[in-house]
Every structure is written in structure tokens, then in C-alpha cells.
Amino acid sequence: MSCPRLLSRLALLLVLAIALGTAPAHAAGSRLTAQQTYELGERFAKRGVTNKALEQFNRVRTYFRDDPYALKAELAIAELHYKKSEWDMARLAYEDFLRAHPRYVDLDIVIWRLGMTLYQKSPTVAAKDQTWTRQAVNTWTGFSSRFPSSEHIADVDKFLGKAQNRLGRKEILIARFYDRREAGPAVEGRTTGFLAQYPSSPDRSEGLTLLAVAYAREQKDPTPAIELLRVQAPQKVGAAQHAVKVAAARRARQLAHEQKKAERQVKVQPVVP
Predict the structure, then answer these.
(1) Burial profile 117-142: b = 16 or more Cβ within 10 angstroms, e = fewer
(2) Nearest Cα to 117, choosing from 142, 165, 84, 147?
(3) SS (H, E, C) 100-162
(4) Among 161, 244, 258, which residue's Cα sits nearest to residue 209?
(5) Which H, E and C letters describe the chain, residue by residue?
(6) CA–centroid distance for 75 within its chain
């Protein structure tokens, strides 16, 4: 046999070998069990090949719906999005999982992760829209009583506290806004709600001071707020009392001015015979 023909046949055999070597891989992929497909996805995930991992997990979820590994695959998809900081995708995946499997044995993990996707989406600056922070708080509220044996209680408590403090700060900023406009009833409404809802907030001393000043503007007794401040932050009492005196004096001047204005208007009114 001539050398060119031999080379041609060898090349053909090589092509066939490659084709035969790759074809079983695709064929075998379709014959993998749910467990094998899931484990293949895990291997891809560990190597950082996220797209391939998602492909395998979705295959388990789609073609092995009644297999226990389908449940694991659903959670694995959410975890992959979470680890890649794809908060919206992770949130939707965890929410879908919760709706589909409300009695899942390790539901605490799902609740913990779902809350974190919401927390991570929320702005750290309290003045901005805190819708996502509020949703995180709603998700985590009651976690420790619902899952008393969960290993995630400490983490949930930590971030729940941060989220609540941020929401409390938002209320204080709104109360400040009304305080600058001397809108006593609005300040009172915000601060009383804040004090009732956020008992551990680091901004409670400012809330009590704003409340005492609001009372002074409304000609109410600020003593209850001052006395509570004396218990919780005695170093702030002096400044609060001074602010109350200033507000009370300003309000007294405003009332006197309004009274004089009313009297002048009465004097200039024409006498009707």
C-alpha cells in the first residue's frame, strides 16, 4: 500500500475514533441517572463552570421531577446564583422553592438565604428607599422561634438587627425633616412609632429628644420623654432640656404674635350700625 493511501486511511481512522469517542459522551449524558446528573452538576460547580452546572441541575429538575435529587437540584440552582451575587435570580429561585416545598426539612437555610438576597439588594444609606430592607426584616422576623435549632440563628440575628437599625434610622431622618418645619404632630407620630417599633436602635436618644421637643411645640408635658431619656442616655438629657426650652420659648412667642395679630384685626374691623 502506498504511503499517501496509508496516511489517508490513518486520518480517516483517527476521525472515526474521535467521533466514536465523543458520541458516547453525549449518549451517556442522556442515560445518566438523576444522581449522576446532579453529581456532574456539582463537579462543574466546584470547578467554577457555572453555566454547565446550571445546565445539569436544570436537567435533573426537568427530567426527574419525582426524584429526590430534583429537590436538591432546585436548591443548588438558587445557591449558584447566590454565590455569584446574582441577587435577583437567587431571590426568585428561593421564592419558587419556598412556594413549591413549604415543608422542606431544612427550610431555615432557604429563609436565611432569601433574607440575605433581599438585604444585599437594599441600599446601605438610610435616606434611600428601604423597600428591600423592610422585606428582609419581614422574612427574618420570628426566625429564632420558628427554627430554634438552626445553626443560622446568630447570622440572622446579626443582619436582622442591622436591617432594623437602618429602618429606624429612616424614621429618624423623616422626623428630623418634620422637626425642621416645626411640625409637632408629625414629629410626635414618627418618633412614637419609632420608639415602639425599634427598642434596640442606637438612635433612640435622638428619637426621645425629638419627641420631647415636639411635645413642647404642642404645649404638652415633655417630662415623660425626658425621664425615659434620663434612663437610657443620661448624657443626652442636658442637650434635650435645652432644646425643649428653646422650642417652648419659640412657640410662646409665636402664640403671642398670633394673638396680637388677631387683636389688631378685631380693632380695625368696621362697626356695623
Answers:
(1) bbbebbeeebeeebebbbbbbebbee
(2) 84
(3) HCCCCCCHHHHHHHHHHHHHHHCCCCCCCCCHHHHHHHHHHCCHHHHCCCCCCHHHHHHHHHH
(4) 244
(5) CCHHHHHHHHHHHHHHHHHHHHHHHHHHHHHCCHHHHHHHHHHHHHCCCHHHHHHHHHHHHHHCCCCHHHHHHHHHHHHHHHHCCCHHHHHHHHHHHHHHCCCCCCHHHHHHHHHHHHHHHCCCCCCCCCHHHHHHHHHHCCHHHHCCCCCCHHHHHHHHHHHHHHHHHHHHHHHHHHHHCCCHHHHHHHHHHHHHHCCCCCCHHHHHHHHHHHHHHCCCCCHHHHHHHHHHCHHHHHHHHHHHHHHHHHHHHHHHHHHHHHHHHHHHCCCCC
(6) 20
Q: What is the mean pLDDT of residues 184-192?
A: 96
* Confidence class for position 6, pLDDT limits 50, 70, 90: very low
Residue boundaries of the structural domains of the chain: 33-84, 181-253
Task: Note if the pTM is more than 0.85.
Answer: no
| pLDDT tens digit sequence for 32-71 | 999 999 999 999 999 999 999 999 999 999 999 999 999 9
pLDDT score recorded for residue 194: 98
Query: pLDDT digit string (tens) for 84-102?
Result: 999 999 999 999 999 999 9
